[in-house]
Amino acid sequence: MAIDLFYTPGSAPCRIVLLVAAALNVEFNHHLVDLRAGEQLTPEFLKINPQHTVPTIVDDGFSLWESRAISRYLASKYGGQSLYPEDLKARALVDQRLDFDLGTLYPRFAQYFYPQLFAGAPADEALLQKLEQGLKFLDTFLEGQKYAAGSELTLADLSLVATVSTIDAAGINLKDYPNVIRWFDLVKTTAPKYEETNGKGIQIFKDMIAQWRAKTEL
To answer: Where is the GST C-terminal domain (predicted)?
Structure first.
């Protein structure tokens, strides 16, 4: 029985789950959730996820949300040892990178950019500097490393690439982070079905940004 996925393709966390599923050859029953229409607030969805967030999966009655938790679950269930290694230290490094993405890099981007995109707030230079610091951290992590957590593609890369591609789509220049650029180019060519799982969602996000910028320039 295929797992039900509730998602919106423009969302970076949702794209993480799509990337992981593609790498594991996991099939989903896809359920698009229109956040602007409030579909995440329906009684039916709230029974599945009281936090009313996407992505959310339902696997034979078992509900789970938070993209990195879903990713770990999928890798553990479907034998993704290369994506989520069993060796304690190797797994701890993947977990650290996942937690860095969840707790530092993606929130710093969201705090800087989303108020501009969704609320018309002015750009905050201090928040941009915090984001740039986060990108510098990632650039340092990648020094001398092929992938984010070693020599193999892991959950860390699939999570971070969804964030970095979103940052890039927002027009934030990565030129000061050569290790990030090298790694980004590598993951785009080695993550299974990258364009299908992440590229299409990035284009949706870019279109949203273009519409916002057109309005602000009137």
So the answer is: 87-208
